[in-house]
Amino acid sequence: MNLIRSSFLALCVWVAACHSSTPTDAASTTAPSLLADASDSAQDAIGETDAYEAQDASADVTVEEPFTPPTQIMARGFWVPIRRAANRHAPLAGYLRAGSIVALKGTRVSRETCPVRRELRREGGWYELQDGGFVCVGGALAIPWQDGQRELRQAQPDLDAGMPYRYAIVYGRSAVFREFPSSDELHDNRGWRLAFEARDGGTGESSHRRRHSDDDDDRPRRPGLGDLRGDRQSNMIRRLMTGMYVSLDRLAHDRGGDTNYWRTQAGGLVPAGPLSIVRAWSEFRGVVLDGTTAHLPYAFMSSTSGFLYRVLREGRAVEFVRRIPRHQGIQLAAAEPITIGENRYWRTEADPNLAVKEANVGLAVARPRPTWFEATERWIDIDLNQQILVAYDGETPAFATLVSTGKRDHGELERYHTPNGQYRVYSKHVTTTMDGDTAMAGPYSIEDVPWVMYFWDSYAIHGAFWHGQWGWRMSHGCVNMAPNDARWLFFFANPQLPSGWHGVFSGREENGSPVIIHAGDRPPRPYRPRRRRDNDDY
């Protein structure tokens, strides 16, 4: 029953790694206290059904007295499911995050399968949201809300910015706690070292050598994600390593220990000392194609040593004019490229006597629309050879930019290629956490990766603030974009995100924007509909 009374029940966070073959669309909906950190969510799934049934048993009292239905609700849980029908077994339409306030449509629809706290038994039950979908109101996850009501809310994402939250990178080894840690807990988890590291001497031997050495259990190894997870009953949720990122809510001060902590968006507490706030990220932006001042063909300088050339002798020679800064956009003339020696050159529209070398740029050219989807749909074309993304509104090019797709294969240990093929966006998330283990670099974790659109398994198009190498292959398989570009595409593509929602699923309606991934003029694999829809598998 303590679970019922907790006003800050935390839920799971969506966790997926770009290189993983099996994504986790959502995990649990229960946690001990505070808003639990992402890495704790898998443990919290245990006992979820029993908790619901216990609450249902105390919530099935029929209350007939009249009440004034709320007009809006506030999400209290870190992950608040929005169902397609007024039943907790119905498929997911999307979800809310803690602190979000959304409008309701009409009065209560049902009380069945909706656990309600005693003090909210009159208003509690299933309500339909203004933009569709149903939420269970009156339990630990969502409560009625009135303007002017006083309650500490989670910091909400800035939907007008490329970076929706504040972020910090971890330097050194630290930990995430549920509550302010004691001095002993803080000491034990500052600069922590696992038992096998102490035994092995922490040599940091590479995974490649480990894979090809003997099977001795004492051979050196680095920690993996499983090693970083805290015990379910302990105050420590998970350990953090150098290079991991956390998303921040607000600064908190522990008077007892006279120590500052950052509360994360997932509700954990991290000592402020090992954190460095991310204050700079790539401000690169693609180009909105209006058909006149900007149109296809269009190029972005992707080389660090790219030049502008003057075409001489009626197109038989070129001479150097000046260097072009990396990532600068260049409007090209509509004419076909010219071949001089072993290179192809594209003339600029501003001056047809000037040209750029095709090998130095990411080239965006018009592509025919595949016929398997409607002519009026918005769709996305990604050229792996050019590292270029072009968004189309029906037959009309609307946006072009540089991207960073999966790194080239490096033998059997690492395979990070972005899958060639034709897909549809099946879910969109303002932010979601991505983590995983890599053979060469060890574990990584990035909380609240911004503007995420999944199109196949755990592969997604998303914003990346941790690098700015657009036009070069950099990722673990996902399609990385500059944060501002990712935001533009997020609100352009379907399905559209309703107001106040943090994530939306396309469902069985096949309304997600098509995503075409190919390597130059080589045709992509045929369209493969996803068999999974919403929460069919969990």
Question: How would you summarize this macromolecular structure in one to three sentences?
Answer:
With 538 residues, the chain is mostly beta strands.
Strand order of the largest sheet: 2-3-32-28-29-30-31
What is the strand content?
25-35%
Radius of gyration, in Å, reads 26 Å
The count of strands amounts to: 33
Number of domains as seen in the coordinates: 4
Instruction: Quote the average pLDDT.
Output: 84
Q: Give the overall form.
A: globular
Total helix count?
8
Characterization of this structure:
By secondary structure, this protein is mainly beta. It has four domains: 2-144, no CATH class; 166-277, no CATH class; 300-361, no CATH class; 378-518, L,D-transpeptidase catalytic domain-like (Beta Barrel), CATH 2.40.440.10. 9% of the residues lie in helices and 33% in strands. It has eight helices and 33 strands. A hairpin with a 6-residue loop joins strand 21 (343-347) and strand 22. The longest helix is centred in the first third of the chain and has 12 residues, at 48-59. The radius of gyration is 26 Å and the shape is globular.
